[in-house]
Amino acid sequence: MDSIYTLGYTGWAVSATDSRHLARDNFANEVLTNLDHLYRIALHLVRNPDEARDCVQETCARALGAQGQFQPGSNLKAWLTRILYNFFYDSYARNKRTVAAEDLLDGTDAADLWEAHAGDAPSPEAQVLDRELGVKIGVALKQIPEEFRAPILLVDMGEFTYAEAAKILSCPIGTVRSRLSRGRRLLQKQLSGYLGKTGSDR
Amino acid sequence: MMRCDQVQELITARLDNELNDDEQSTLDAHLQICELCRRAMTAESRLKQQIKATHREVVAPAALRREIEDAMASRRAVASAKSEHGFAAWLHLRGWRPAFAVALIILGVATIFYVREPRQNVGMAALESHRKLLSGKTTLAHYDNPNRLRQELSRAVGNRFTPVALDLSMMNLYPVSGFVQKIGDREVLVTVYQGGAPAITCFTFLGTEADAPKSAERFFDADMKLNFYSFSQDGINAVLHQEGNVICILVSKMAPADILSLLRGKSAHA
Prior knowledge:
heterodimer; A: Rna Polymerase Sigma Factor, Chain: A; about 65% helix; B: Phosphorylase Kinase, domain 1
């Protein structure tokens, strides 16, 4: 029979079973407090709510299984998000990340896009329109390539720092920064048809 | 003075409080003279706030939360049962002692038959291990420092051999985890590469080309003067080759040709 020993952060041979004596209940509760966050991120990664549920369930199962490798006091939310992303990349991402950003930007002057959404503080009427904009953002996020969407999900939604996002995505911090900038511009491009209707540009 | 398109990234980082002092000064100088970029920053700030607000409105479905809570409760129950009714306690049940003796005899006979079985093929076991990794059935601890991971793995086999290391950063794949897998009587070092492409698992062990499964297809690379053996099962592909006394098997859902080209272009060795 095969036997598997996993490597822990602190050294050799911490198996999943060895960690059971750790504060299991507290850990499980802490995982549950991050459920909304995980679901929101998952919902933007995959195609539908069912797949998002699968992602979150799998993430929680993996987190509980690997509980012994989590260092108490470190960032559990980031750790869980990294597990979620690893599962997503292995199970869902495949070839979707190869869409060229240039195809979406197609030479549009980004400054024009920003200007369409710029202006003074929105009026109450504009705030109502902005709620509608929220829905549009959810749809638009699905349209942009995964590599540019990921930093938006992590930094803008997950409120992670660039360093934390870089660790989750296994990439340099500079990559997070440039892709985030690019991603927000792509998002503006996707929303460009709608932005004229908001109160923001009056 | 920077051009407008060059400060886009600085505006982004400023809104996220990720600018250093020099960058802050550069951006401030530009914003003082550029109305367009000031408006761009206002717009990006509003978009960021809107994204955050959109996000907060979404909550996990109650049914999902219940399912996960139930699963956690089951885990707790199983764990408690194991600790309270462990093997030692079970043995103290008088009526079960004869049954235990019989079971021991059966186990002994089965072990003899098992030992006579031909050696388990490492290549086919590697495919199965990769499949388990993808399905999440194997728990992985993530490791941030590839060098340390390699050192730990080498140490785990008494430094008799080291895992073959690959630079797959071009494919946004990095060594994130590793473990020792016992396959038959062999110790196999397993390194898991994950990231932006289909995951790759690298298996390294002391062996020969005879460890390739019988079904494997052989390719001879005249430039490298190496044999490569390709084999697959259920959509998972593997390529095996020998380096000195070490066998390396790369397993992935990538096409065999792609795995082969990775091996031909590999730039780093342990």
